[in-house]
Design a protein that fits this description.
The structure is a single chain. The protein is an all-alpha fold and about 325 residues long. The protein has a single domain, classed as Rhopdopsin 7-helix transmembrane proteins (Up-down Bundle), CATH 1.20.1070. Helices cover about 75% and strands about 0% of the residues. The protein has 12 helices and 3 strands. A 3-stranded mixed sheet has the order 2-1-3. Helix 3 packs antiparallel against helix 4 and helix 4 runs parallel beside helix 9. It is globular, with a radius of gyration of 21 Å. It starts with 6 loop residues before the first helix and ends with a helix.
Length: about 325
Amino acid sequence: MKAESRFNESGSGFSIQGLLNDSELRIPVLIMCLFVYISILLGNVMIFTIIAANPRLRIPMYTFLMNLSAADIIYASNILPKLMTILVTKDNAVTFIGCMAQMYIYIVMTCTEVLLLEVMAYDRYVAICHPLQYFLLMSMRHCAGLATTAWTFSFLISIGHVVLISKQSFCGSHLINHFYCDIAPLLKLTCSDTFDVEIMNYIEGVLVTFNAFVFTIISYLFIISSILKIKSSEGRHKAFSTCSSHLASVIIFYGTLFVLYMRPSSSYSPERDKFFSLLSGVLIPILNPVIYSLKNREFKIGFMTLINKMSYKR
């Protein structure tokens, strides 16, 4: 035990390996990361601004979309700026507190997105299966309560991971084989028993991710059943188009999430996890503005209304 170095007690930190070891690719990767980050910010800020500025869009579906955009902005801002700093300065050091904070925010935003996708599935279920009761069941007060619960629950349940990992003893190499502080690569550096952390990981996976996934699947089974009962093909197409964007986002999000976390730490593969982490951390925040809004007629009208207002003020 004396040979072990306890980083959490000594105040030392870690080193983050980053995305690549080839210095020749550093500038192209930096440019790509900067472009991606700006795209995420512009796309999601645009969603937030248009919905907030247009009273016609202040309905449940767009209220949840505003929250999803906020989560995507925080999600990307938690990872990409640090990654770009490493690429620019080549300084990959991170303090222990900074690493724990980054991991905590990442877990919180992941849980929040899971729960928001769940309540959005419920919103689409009510809209298609119970259209006459929609504004009763999905009142703005009810929607605000659901969104607040999603954020609050995520902040609270994620504390367990940080507490348990911060108590671990880290020995040997302090190089995190990832481009941000995440649970699996951190556990590879510990010389303590990780049973408690893995149990916490599975409890959170079942309590949040699995239950939300099952609820979403059940919601879509009812949705598809209701759509198939619509006699006209035009009506079926219109009904399905209202939830196809959300379904596409659910498939991408849960696909990467299950690959990353729903498996034992012994099967951890650094390169594979980097790829899927980059996929979920970049692709989803970029695609959300497109698949939820830019293909939506009401959102296009709201966008043009905002542009006209800005032009008129000038």
